[in-house]
Amino acid sequence: MTTYPINIAGATPLPEREASPIREELRQAAQQFEAILLRQMLSSARSTDFGGNELFGGEGEETFREMRDARFAEVTAESGQLGFAQAIEQQLARFLPQGDR
Prior knowledge:
101 residues
């Protein structure tokens, strides 16, 4: 995944530099955490019962829905559209050694 860092003002791109292995692990962990968060949000939303009678129900449909939601959460987290992973990464990067920030 390619990232395009920008300065705080957002005016000009910062020079691209190779991320350290620790920073890359942090980025991946933040994305995985965002995916978990999104799966939980989708699960909570789906647990709401509006009293409708489903024509096609059962465990098969439920399993498919869970798999679809999990994949959606992974793709969304990887795309960075919500920004949770980036915010988490920035907060945790403060605790990395100076050279790995």
